[in-house]
Amino acid sequence: MTAPRSLPHPLGVTVVEGGLNVAIYSETADAVFFCAFDGEQETRTELPSRSGYVWHGFVPGAGVGTKYGIRVAGPWDPENGVRHNVNKLLLDPHALAISGDYSWDQRLFGHDMNEPLRMDGTDSASAMPRCVVVDRAFEWGDDRAPHPRAPRIPMDRTIVYETHVKGFTKRLPGVPEELQGTYAGFAHPKAIEHFTKLGITSVELMPVHQFVQENTLLDKGLRNYWGYNSIGFFAPHNEYSSSGDEGQQVVEFKQMVKDLHAAGLEVILDVVYNHTAEGNHMGPMLSFKGLDNGAYYRLVDEQRDAYFDTTGTGNSLNTLHPAALGLIMDSLRYWVEEMHVDGFRFDLATTLTRQGGEVGLRSAFLDLTLQDPTLAPVKLIAEPWDTAGYQVGEFPAEWSEWNGKFRDDVREFWSGADSLLGTTAQRVLGSPDVYQVSRRSPLCSVNFVTAHDGFTLADLTAYNHKHNDANGENSQDGESDNKSFNTGAEGPTDDPAVIERRLRQRKNFLATLLLSAGVPMILGGDEMGRTQGGNNNAYCQDDEISWFDWDAVDTELFDFTRELIRLRQESPTLRPEWYREAPTEDVEDTVVLKRSDDKEFSDADWDNPDARTITLILEREGEDSFGLLLNSAENGVEFRVPKAPGREWELALSSDPEQRVAGPVSTLIVRDGSFTLLRSRA
Fold this sequence. Notes:
Blueprint: E1 12-16, E2 19-25, E3 31-38, E4 41-46, E5 49-51, E6 54-60, E7 67-73, E8 76-77, E9 82-83, E10 98-99, E11 111-112, E12 115-119, E13 130-132, E14 160-163, H1 165-169, H2 183-186, H3 189-198, E15 202-205, E16 209-211, H4 215-218, E17 230-236, H5 248-262, E18 266-271, H6 288-296, E19 299-300, E20 303-307, H7 322-337, E21 343-346, H8 349-352, E22 354-355, E23 358-359, H9 364-371, E24 379-382, E25 385-386, E26 389-390, E27 400-402, H10 404-414, H11 421-428, H12 432-435, E28 445-447, H13 457-460, H14 496-515, E29 519-523, H15 555-570, E30 589-594, H16 603-607, E31 613-620, E32 625-631, E33 637-640, E34 650-654, E35 667-670, E36 674-680
Parallel strand pairs: 14-15, 14-29, 15-18, 18-21, 21-24, 24-27, 27-28, 28-29
Antiparallel strand pairs: 1-2, 2-6, 3-4, 3-7, 5-6, 7-13, 8-9, 10-13, 11-12, 16-17, 19-20, 22-23, 25-26, 30-31, 31-32, 32-36, 33-35, 34-36
């Protein structure tokens, strides 16, 4: 009987009648093998057909549940960028699930560890995890791609909550122990209750693509907690599954998304397409290196055994090549169409735009994402930098960006630094100096003060220096020393004055974030005072340093953050879709900038290095108006308050617990290092 005709697409493994269709890309291979495993028993099937550079074949008798890997035979010529080694079992780049873990020794390396240009002949199958053929069926009900029934939160109403599947739920009371730290735990009613009570709209999950635990960390007794070490761009990370890793992780992830959607919450994935876990020329051979090294990785032109690296991890994906670009696009579409996610935050996105080593704002990667109808409805957020370039404000108008300038300038302002008045006003107004010049809206700016990479908000306001000793690098890792946002003691303290000062600063930061134009992003746990003990680079701390401590919740800070979010969501004045302008008859959203004495700013005022105060009057036709009074000085300042646009000013919020507003307001004392928000009802 003649075997069914195989097809070169889709890439990866597809269940068909009687077996599997297998298609693997490689320009430089001499032969490609599908390797099925029953325990440690391996059965190899050579893919007999080649269409262009895609090797394909039909594998009879295999189906859902089959564990497998790929082997590629071909030349070993690292000096010319080719690294085929048939002794090494490779992961299918399009695998939907990965089962098992790695055994770190010579078996995982395609080269001899002592002679990097020499091929190693040991077989790696016994040291490698397996790909798993999964059943793609799932009962989504009304939650259908491309999401007609999903939340689909408009950008002006979006409030992003960056968090970690494991860390958020590992110690969450009310979540059964067997579900803590898993996808099922993240969708547990107790987890969802926190999100909905706080009022955020979109959870941004730190990497959930299958990633690798590096041997360098394991040797130190540490683990890769953050997950920025991807190897499987289609597979949900198996360690976060409570139900098993032989395909169950796919079902559990889908159920998590479905449950979060049912609660009105979006799911955004932090994705790492800029590099993989295979590292540089001394790194392991797990997948792409052995499939087609030069197609998937950018190599140094003059030294093809070396990797072009703008990520700081040893390699960069070759987005100049159709194979690598196709992989990224296939992955993005899969997570939208089959996993129903609502958007992506692209780690080191600048690397993906590089054409011939240079940044290209009309690069192939950006062009493909912008014309793809599957991606058009979802949120695309860039981290607009890499180790060799800073692109804040330079991505296309359809993209939003992590606004690093917001973080830096707002931190500087509240530290009491000189000459920050003008830039702080720009940040609060949505950074028109960054985005308006290219006809982009403030919604292109994802504003943040803290993120996973750096101090938590509690630590930002409690430590003057990083405390990363637990990372085993003599505290040489992580950002340099912090600006001083606290007074007195370093770290934990019982001094009531220091505690009060820190709480005020945390409220200042949260208020500046949530009252500014743009899209606010909160680092998970900042709303409840989460600390990492001063560790500002907890990437390797899969323990109590990183996990949320639900027994130490600052309820006052949580309630304050919740009220800020409530105010923002109910008040269109606080979330403009376009830039505010000076008041005129035909402008809907307006802003008036005043000195604390209610006088107009002069050029000299903006340039005054000692200026620490600003009044912003925010108005929108037919809506409540707000007066935001900011004082980063070391002393209290009397503000002469402009006349209320509607009813008399009332106190909306303040970081000063003693702040009071009674009757018609003409002057108001805003104490040192504090903000006050006034409200005038329409």
